[in-house]
Amino acid sequence: MNTDWQKYFRDRLGPHFASQKIEKTILKADYHGALLTVWVAENPTQIGISGIVILETRHTFQMVTQDDRFVVIPKKGAVFRFILGDRLFSLFGDGMRTRPAWRGKKPRVKRVLPTFIRGTLQPVPTACAQI
């Protein structure tokens, strides 16, 4: 499973492997199948845990470790690392706390009228109407 994920991630990085656009690619990637190691965590007993991600939610990575244990690691306050080829990548959990499906989508622009246009129309005072 991790071998397939590595192939997917290499293909996704493509020509961005050594450029500034790599951050967006990393943020939008799917991490199901990634072998992650917990580098920093709010719970010190979780530091050093490595496992393959089987489910990613808005607030957690759910992984299976090498000794077949199921662990749930909160993203809040955590830093995860993974190796791809000869490069070490770090994922900051606080920056990834959105639904995985939403990370890859272009944000919708809210079309809101400026505050000076919003509101109800008021009748023009008679003094102004005569000008």
From TrEMBL:
Highest taxon of the lineage: Eukaryota
Biological-process GO terms, alphabetical: rRNA processing; tRNA 5'-leader removal
Gene Ontology CC, one term: nucleus
Keywords for this protein: Cytoplasm, Endonuclease, Hydrolase, Nuclease, tRNA processing
Listed InterPro entries: RNase_P/MRP_Rpp29-subunit, RNase_P/MRP_Rpp29_sf, RNP1, Rof/RNase_P-like, Rpp29/RNP1
Gene Ontology MF annotations: endonuclease activity; hydrolase activity; ribonuclease P RNA binding
Annotated localization: Nucleus
Subcellular location, principal: nucleus
Function, in words: Component of ribonuclease P, a ribonucleoprotein complex that generates mature tRNA molecules by cleaving their 5'-ends.
PANTHER family: RIBONUCLEASE P PROTEIN SUBUNIT P29, RIBONUCLEASE P SUBUNIT P29
Assembly description: Component of nuclear RNase P and RNase MRP ribonucleoproteins. RNase P consists of a catalytic RNA moiety and 10 different protein chains; POP1, POP4, POP5, POP7, RPP14, RPP21, RPP25, RPP30, RPP38 and RPP40. Within the RNase P complex, POP1, POP7 and RPP25 form the 'finger' subcomplex, POP5, RPP14, RPP40 and homodimeric RPP30 form the 'palm' subcomplex, and RPP21, POP4 and RPP38 form the 'wrist' subcomplex. All subunits of the RNase P complex interact with the catalytic RNA. Several subunits of RNase P are also part of the RNase MRP complex.
Family, as annotated: Belongs to the eukaryotic/archaeal RNase P protein component 1 family.
Identification of the protein by name: Ribonuclease P protein subunit p29
